Amino acid sequence: MNIIVTAMHENILISGPITPEIVSAGVSRLGNNTGLGGHSLFLGQVRSDMKGLKKVKAIEYSAYKEMLNKEAGVIKETVLSEYNDVNSIYILHSTGIVRAGEISLLVLVSAGHRHQAIAACTKTVELIKEKLPVWKKEIFEDDTHEWVRDKKA
Amino acid sequence: MEIKVLFFGVLAEVTQSMFRHYSDIKSFSDLKHRIEDEFPEIVHYDFRIAVNSEFINDEPELKNNDEVAFMPPFAGG
Fold this sequence. Notes:
The complex is a heterodimer. By secondary structure, chain A is α+β, with helices and mostly antiparallel strands. Chain A has one domain: Molybdopterin biosynthesis MoaE subunit (Aldehyde Oxidoreductase, domain 3, Alpha-Beta Complex), CATH 3.90.1170. Chain A is 33% helix and 37% strand. Chain B has one domain: Ubiquitin-like (UB roll) (Roll). In chain B, strands 2-1-5-3-4 form a five-stranded mixed sheet. In chain B, 27% of the residues are buried.
């Protein structure tokens, strides 16, 4: 079975945090492909930043779903064409509220050998940051909020 | 022409709406002016445009029933 082709059209959005059970299911879906030699897993976590005297307690993510799933497909194609040893790329991104300390992004890249698994995982994460139409609202402990990178510099 | 406009991130907050319909739009520039007249605060924000889920760098040519998204800088991950 060609994992790559089926993965292209997947919905990568998940409502709420990416729990340990979801991470585990993501790893399990690789099955028992004995041709693979390495998997590189990146988990993005909500950090409790300080903004002045305010502490971030959660992030609320929103996304342009149709465009996001299409762009995620383009990212996968781009990385697969650049790293010929990579067999599959699995991406999940949270939408809605994710509390500090919880996981909001999962990238799992599988390859024949470790070097390309790690390099392609890094590349995928960077492209996600640059290309995916996702926005985040930091929610502080006093329930006020601030959009990340909102006003003109 | 009829245009469906989507607002994301802080722009949804500024316009108090996720989407709006605009009628009798002559061009993208006409649409932008209509939005700026309605929500003057929007000029303080950076945004990129997508038409029917495709990024557009230049001023887009609009067709009837196009979906135009106003998107602040991305902040995924």
